[in-house]
Structure formats: C-alpha cells, structure tokens
C-alpha cells in the first residue's frame, strides 16, 4: 500500500492579502470613474474638473455687452464633453437643452447635462439680474474628454443697469404673426372641397 504525502498548500502571504483590497479598489476606480466623472454636470459652483490634465485645446470665448444691460457669451473650438461657467452675479437664460443652470452663493453657474459629445460654436445669454451697473467676472472650463480639459481665461466686463428694473430675463422672441396665421388656416385640400360643397348647396337652395 502506497503512502500519500500531502504537502502544505500554497497560501497567499500576509503582504499579498494586504495588497488585494487596494488592487481591487484601484481596478474598480479605473473601470467606473470615467463614466461617473461628469455625467450630469460639473461640481457645484466650481470650474475645476477634479480629473484629467489641464492643457490648451483650442477652445475660446468672447463676451459682448448688449443694449439691455446684459451680455452674450460666445464659445468656439469644436466638440466637447463638458463645461462649467460661473459668473460673479446675474443669471443665464435661454440655455440649450444640453446645458443646465445652477444657483450658487457666489453667483450663477451653468454646466452640461450629460457627457455626450457636443458641438461648438455656441452662444449663451447673461442678464443683469440685480439691475445694477458695475463689473461682472466670468470664469470657465471646457473638458474635451475625461482626461483633458482647458481652463478659459477669465473675462471681466462692466455692464449698465438693466433697462426695465424687473430683475427678470428679457422675454424671448415672439413667433412671427404671419406664421401664426398660417398655423390657423385650413389646408388647400380641405378648404377647396369645402368651398365647392357650400356653393353647390347654395345653388340647390335657390
């Protein structure tokens, strides 16, 4: 009868066991962090992404004052994944669907709604919510991807007081009257047969 000799099982060392949780955590972070970095907007009231490398990516912006005491912010530079712009006061309005506004103690902010690719150029409207003259500072950052972003040069403008004193954004443009008329007019393929029936009825009635 043979003798079976059993050796000691190869057990992981204490050092390997200590490293395992950290390694698992690192793998999970690398897998999930990019998808959760900016899916629903930048950090509240911040223009620091907290991820990726800051570099020049060719994005630019300009801000022009408007006659009603507001301003128009214009962006250019191609596609981007996320952005954050904070003003020292006032408010933003008529934002495109891919952007959202947030209220901060330091001033208004707008940022992206999701991390899908978006296209520049784009224009954003700012209004003088406080209806007072003076300086307004704008800070911004645009992320091309999770790994790269560009900090925009801060811009400060001096604005006039609001024109109506209401503190509300200007009303959006009303639809063209002629378009409204067309909206309520009958199509020809309905109007012409209807007119013919009315004429025939009147002829029979006579």
Quick recap:
It comes from Vitrella brassicaformis (strain CCMP3155). This protein has helices at residues 14-36, 177-184, 188-205; strands at residues 53-54, 60-65, 71-76, 79-80, 82-87, 91-93, 99-104, 107-112, 118-119, 122-127, 134-143, 148-159.
Beta-strand residue percentage: 25-35%
Per CATH, what is the topology of the domain at 53-159? Immunoglobulin-like
Report helical residue fraction.
10-25%
What is the top-level CATH class of the domain at 53-159?
Mainly Beta
- For CATH, the homologous superfamily of the domain at 53-159 is named as Reeler domain
Salient structural properties:
single chain; 12 strands; 206 residues; 4-stranded antiparallel β-sheet; 3 helices; disordered C terminus; alpha+beta; Immunoglobulin-like; elongated; 6-stranded mixed β-sheet
Walk me through what this model shows.
Residues 159-179 are annotated as: Disordered. Helix content is 24%, strand content 33%. With 206 residues, the chain is α+β, with helices and mostly antiparallel strands. The protein has a domain at 53-159: Immunoglobulin-like. The strands form 3 sheets. Strands 1-12-11-5-8-7 form a 6-stranded mixed β-sheet, with no helix packed on it. Strands 2-3-10-6 form a 4-stranded antiparallel β-sheet, with no helix packed on it. The longest helix is centred in the first third of the chain and has 23 residues, at 14-36. It is elongated, with a radius of gyration of 31 Å. 21% of the residues are buried.
